[in-house]
Sequence to fold (321 residues):
Amino acid sequence: MEKTRESSGAQSGDHSASKVARLGTLAAFGAYSMWGLFPLYWKRLAGIDPLQILAHRIVWAAVFTLGILAMAGRLKGLVVVIRNGRRAAALAASAVLVTMNWGIYIWAVNNGHVTESSLGYYINPLLSVALGTLFLGERLDLWTRWAVGFASLGVAVASVMLGGPPWISLSLAASFALYGYVKKRVGLDPMTGLAAETLFLAPVALAYLVVEHVSGRGSFGAGDHVATFMLAFSGVVTAVPLLCFASAANKITLTRMGFIQFISPSCQLALSLFLYHERLTLPLAVAFSTVIIAVALYAATRNTKEARGSSAPDAGAMAED
Fold:
């Protein structure tokens, strides 16, 4: 009888764990698919100054995240975080980094550089690994060293062929990898972190938008009602994938998350080539080939033990765009 109960309990536990893993996997696919389709959203706003799009994204993301925290009764926690001088300084730094990343990405998408943007998000995980080694004392195994070295060689060769580094790709990868590093050190939940970051920058962004509107250059409410709605909705578009990611990070292993994350740059690359008909030049093809081989090598050599022994990835460290 006892064995039957134990067997039944084990099966119930396995079923529950399997259900949680399925939900986590769906949430991860949702997050990275949304990030991968972001070019479709920003491209619709291509007629608007990228700085205005960026400012609207900051302001409306602040409004949305503060609203969510207020409904959840968590505003006091946000106040406590902001009053902590050390944490506030780190969040201000992460706010600057994510703003740089968002701004470069929006500009790149709306100026025909979706291909280079996608390359940046293929490079990003490997750069994050390098930062972890340099600043967090994380050790690289042999396969990871080969992966990072091979990707670096490919980017270097592409830079020589281009006559200069692929600045858009490297800027996106570097700004986001550094953002992830800072966020990991702060250690906040995604919603509180995003609320604090956007709150730091919202006054400047709002002041800029007011100046643009008064001067007659403002796009909000200027006739294109779809664009006006999309600017206001950009806060939701920013926060929802992050929430999906946060849910996934608590339910599935690092290895599974690592594989799924490449949906995002792959979607971006597909959009750039087949929808926007951007040209994949030989130098970029070299960079893509080496970086994709490197990330495949890295992903394929992560074993189950490492995945289970690692903490779930921080939302700030891997959330995109």
